Amino acid sequence: MKQKFSVITSTCVPLPLENVDTDQIIPARFLKATDKAGFGDNLFHDWRYNEDGSLKKDFVLNNPVYGGCILVAGKNFGSGSSREHAAWAIAGYGFRVVISSFFADIHKNNELNNFVLPVVVTDSFLQELFASIADNPKTEVEVDLPNQTVLNKATGRSEKFEINSYKKHCLMNGLDDIDYLLQNKDKIEAWERLNK
C-alpha cells in the first residue's frame, strides 16, 4: 500500500451521506484479522451486499457508472470507534484520496498512516463536487499534494487544504513512520552520542 503521492487526477465515487462511522466503513465482525489483506472486499459491506452475498444494485460502489481512486464523502466521515481496519478497507479497495468537509481525528490519522490522503474542503466546495459528479459521473478531480490544492475540473474551482508537514513529507516519499526513522538513523545515533 506504500505509494508516493504527488498529483492525482481521477474520477470519483460519491457517498453523500453524513456521519458515516467506522462500523459502517468496516463492520466489527470483520476485525478478527491482523493482516491488512482482503479488507477492501468488505468495505461498506452491509451497504454493498445482500444477506446472500449478492450485490445491492443501488449502492454506489456497485454502480459501474462511478469509479476512480477518489471517494467524495459527506461531513463527519470516520466517526465512531478508532479501528484502523476502516482505513485498511478504504486503502484495500483502491481509494487513494477521501474528500470530505470534516473527518473524525483518529480516522483521519489512520488514513494518513495507510497512505490514503484525507482532504478537508469547505461545505460549499463539497456540495459543488457532489453536484458536478451527479451531473457527469466522468467528472475529474485533481488533488495536488505538493501545492495542497484540490481542483474540480468540471467548474475550474479549487481550494487549498491543510496537512501536517511531517505526514506530507512521508506521503510524498512513500515512507511510513518506521521508514522515516530508519532514514534518519545516523542523525538519531549522532544525537544519542552527544547526549549521553
Automatic annotation (TrEMBL):
Domain Aconitase A/isopropylmalate dehydratase small subunit swivel, first and last residues per copy: 4-121
InterPro entries on file: 3-IsopropMal_deHydase_ssu (IPR004431), Aconitase/3IPM_dehydase_swvl (IPR015928), AconitaseA/IPMdHydase_ssu_swvl (IPR000573), IPMI_Swivel (IPR033940), LeuD (IPR050075)
Enzyme class, spelled out: lyase
Keyword Lyase in record: yes
Listed EC numbers: 4.2.1.33
GO BP annotation list: L-leucine biosynthetic process
Pfam families, sorted: Aconitase_C
Family: Belongs to the LeuD family. LeuD type 1 subfamily.
Protein purpose: Catalyzes the isomerization between 2-isopropylmalate and 3-isopropylmalate, via the formation of 2-isopropylmaleate.
Protein name: 3-isopropylmalate dehydratase small subunit
Organism of this sequence: Marseilla massiliensis
